[in-house]
Amino acid sequence: xxxxxxxxxxxxxxxxxxxxxxxxxxxxxxxxxxxxxxxxxxxxxxxxxxxxxxxxxxxxxxxxxxxxxxxxxxxxxxxxxxxxxxxxxxxxxxxxxxxxxxxxxxxxxxxxxxxxxxxxxxxxxxxxxxxxxxxxxxxxxxxxxxxxxxxxxxxxxxxxxxxxxxxxxxxxxxxxxxxxxxxxxxxxxxxxxxxxxxxxxxxxxxxxxxxxxxxxxxxxxxxxxxxxxxxxxxxxxxxxxxxxxxxxxxxxxxxxxxxxxxxxxxxxxxxxxxxxxxxxxxxxxxxxxxxxxxxxxxxxxxxxxxxxxxxxxxxxxxxxxxxxxxxxxxxxxxxxxxxxxxxxxxxxxxxxxxxxxxxxxxxxxxxxxxxxxxxxxxxxxxxxxxxxxxxxxxxxxxxxxxxxxxxxxxxxxxxxxxxxxxxxxxxxxxxxxxxxx
Length: 437
Description:
By secondary structure, this protein is α+β, with helices and mostly antiparallel strands. Among the domains are: about 180 residues, no CATH class; about 130 residues, no CATH class. Helices cover about 45% and strands about 15% of the residues. The chain is built from 17 helices and nine strands. A nine-stranded mixed sheet has the order 3-2-1-4-5-9-8-7-6, with helices on both faces. A hairpin with a 2-residue loop joins strand 6 and strand 7. Helix 2 packs across helix 3, helix 3 packs across helix 6 and helix 7 packs parallel to helix 17. The two termini are about 30 Å apart.
């Protein structure tokens, strides 16, 4: 049986197998123009008598600038001034380049959720179109993994604000491990937390053929019900916030239980791989034997319990051990369980870490109304694009942005051409027509 892959892996394989890269792609700016249409369609709340710069132009400058290694409002203004001649290829700029205050105020007073959703939707459609053209649809996993997790932008907090202490921006993110991008987010208010935010956002999503993963904070009866209500499945981490439940599941996975599960098909899997300078061994156990749990009917869809035993052996001979426990709505499919348990770290490594490392989101000090939120949303759009093309550059996303800034006019059009379905179809056709070597 051929190895299954995520859509992101299949996309990168398509680029590699067909020698598709920024160096040899035929430039096509249709994706830029489509994104510009979306920017122009964002509702402008400004009073016409105060409008000088077009909203679509402002949004696109911020988008282009973030791609070109700008992280703050002042850097965005500097970028636009240097690239004004090229920007006029796509933008009107009737009054020239806006100031940094203009970006801060305008972006801080619009709702960018619409722009985020339509742009991410365009990228999802693009990936699906490329995979259809390359014939890789049959190699994809039947179920995708979507991870729910919160993030704090520490730099956005204020201790000496005129109205008292200002809470740092907290965001509940929904990340697709299948596409490698954030699908949705909800910003958490002062008097709440990520638990109700997760339940609210999950109730709005189509979760068919999807496994939702979450940490222990979101291991809640209402969260499980929200996932099942939207036709999805869940693998939720279980810890001390459900103390009795946790103790009972931990006691269930004793030596005898694990020994039996090792003998049963679909209930046990072992992996050994290098990690942090040592060797990590993981043993995955999953069982549908849950009849002993007295409150099982209170957890909608509950079908199985899972356990991951991790052991790290370091070069100096020291060892570290860890056990994690899960409640699941999936059956005794240990490969699916392993993908879900491991996949949850994708939201941390591929979203939260990249937002801080590549885009300096942890130092996001913008507090002008929704400024911090909207700047973060724009960065997530750019991160989605970088995640799709990064393997073709063979360097980090942080360095891609830096190198892009050195030759922006050519570099950005080549990059976005790699996410144009028609351009990729031509490249695939050309490769298939070329003689065999």
